[in-house]
Amino acid sequence: MLWAYLALDAMSGPLIIHFNNLVGINQIGNLGDLFWLGATGIVAVVINFIVAIELEPRDYFWGKLLAAATLLFSLLIFIGFAAIISVN
């Protein structure tokens, strides 16, 4: 989220938030929209991490599975921000 803010701060006008090859630009927004998207992702990752830590002593498999799913989720959020930066 910080990387996207620093890279896109100098841009004026709306940002392309979602782009589709078939339709084109589906959603435009500003840096505030990116902030709320990133903040929601950070909250979800932190909550999943805390739940995985609490779950691991009770059931090792489910704790590790949730931790791995949280890692995958955070990587997808990172890729999404990288795509937004590259499109703009």
Would you give an account of this structure?
The protein is of the alpha+beta class and 88 residues long. The chain has one domain. It has three helices and two strands. The chain has helices spanning 2-8, 31-55, 60-87; strands at 15-20, 24-29. Strands 1-2 form a two-stranded antiparallel sheet. Helix 1 runs parallel beside helix 3 (60-87) and helix 2 packs antiparallel against helix 3 (60-87). The protein is elongated and about 50 Å long. It starts with a helix and ends with a helix.
Topology, element by element:
Layout: H1 2-8, E1 15-20, E2 24-29, H2 31-55, H3 60-87
Antiparallel strand pairs: 1-2
Helix pairs in contact: 1-3, 2-3
The profile of the biggest β sheet is:
2 strands, antiparallel
Count of helical segments? 3
Radius of gyration: 16 Å
Q: What distance lies between the first and last C-alpha atoms, to the nearest angstrom?
A: 15 Å
Large-scale geometry: elongated
Helix content: 55-70%
Uncertain ranges: none
Strand order of the largest sheet: 1-2
What's the number of domains? 1
